[in-house]
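[Automated response] Your request has been received and processed.

Submitted sequence:
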Amino acid sequence: MSDPVLTWPFEVLTPATMSFNMRARNTAGSRSLSGLSQDIASGAGGWVARYSKVAIIDQNKAKRFYAIAAMLQGRLNPLLVTLYDERRAPFPASQPKPYKSIPFSDGAYFSDGAGFYEAVIQAVLASGMARGATTATIIMQFGGEIEPGQHFSIGMRLYRVVTASYSSGPTQTVTFWPPARDAASAGAAVEFDRPVCKMKLADDNMMDVELDRDTWGYPNVDFIEDLS
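Generated structure:
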């Protein structure tokens, strides 16, 4: 399985709602005579996500949906799924929301209506991060305060902030979940505006869709984290 070449086109195939949830992997031992049992973590768990009621409201959107289904081939090929959590992201006071989609120099957009993306929040790792780490030191070059419950991604991996504290100046130390999927070097970009997660379809038939009058449909699409 190769690295994903596709990012779900959120601005084109927009869901009405979305969810990103953590699935822990815990194992319970047998109960003792007193009725107590011990829960043991058997792994780091992973992310599950749902895009609910994806709006397919014209032929261009229908064709894009069908093309993505063909590219993914069920659960075979991964993709990048974006977590839009802008209300909780650490935007700076001077720019409290994301930039709008950016057109070409002549004001035109792509044929599907999408434009270019530019992040507002600028953050990098202050030091290297080992695979399996749960702590990172982040330099916030342009942005607000990092707080527990926010999300970020490094490369193709999504993380949730558990705790955050200031080290010095614009530098904050955070703990996060899940443990680092991949190692990262000092200076690696930390994405807060639109964090992404490497995922795959939860089921081979997840892109099946019924279109009303061959045009309109509102399917739900479920994803699970791809750890390859």
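Summary generated for your ticket: The chain has a mean pLDDT of 88. The beta strands are 17-28, 39-52, 79-82, 122-125, 135-142, 151-154, 157-168, 171-177, 196-201, 221-225.
If you did not submit this request, please reply to this message.
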